[in-house]
């Protein structure tokens, strides 16, 4: 067990940190994804279909963390930390999603520095964190959130694991940390998701460098003020059930093997007009498809709604 004092907080210190199944899960070819700094573009571009799909088939990757995302360290082993991620609810651990992250990708910060009045969320696909003089420091993903120090002209000064940094006003939304992002409609979930049509699927992906199916659902809900579980199975269990004949845009649809009677394996957004917006599988990009006549039509096993449930509270 690693000591974690009350006034200190462990946060992610790279653009995207992958949460691995074990300290031995990462391969030599995954090096750009386990260093500090990372180069997620280089890592994803270097993977072949076979080495990419192996991240899933060989049970190597669990999830991902964005820059500044807090973790709780429960154990250390060599140069690795076992963490749980409080912002990613999971039935695997009541404290948050569990897995292993290279120790060098985490950093301790003063908890008070992380508890500012306002928070900035990246709403562009990606944006460069800048130094005070405007130099590019780190390319950040959509929905990276950082504590706001102050807003200066056309930039927001934020706390980062590496000290103060700057983000362009146009690329972020600033919101009260105590309230969270404003809750939006199901149509807004779809509108945000449409921006990513064509983005390649990435197993375990939780960033705009590549999402998996449930990571895509999680991120679009996060962008619209809703925290939902990280995995598709948990997303199906936690939401408000919706009859298929009452589906509305922004609802989640779930799919199981054996024509809906087997293991749940996929989630997508109901788009409207009998269509689905989803991140399908390795080798394919986020797409909008007609459900009629597809395997998904036969595999549909549940539908849930988060946006309405949250608005009714």
TrEMBL record:
Residues 183-313 form the NlpC/P60 domain. GO terms for molecular function: hydrolase activity. SUPFAM superfamilies: Cysteine proteinases. Keywords: Hydrolase, Protease, Thiol protease. It holds the Pfam family SH3_YKFC_2nd. PANTHER family: GAMMA-D-GLUTAMYL-L-LYSINE DIPEPTIDYL-PEPTIDASE, MUREIN DD-ENDOPEPTIDASE MEPH-RELATED. Belongs to the peptidase C40 family. This is Cell wall-associated hydrolase, NlpC family. It comes from Virgibacillus subterraneus.
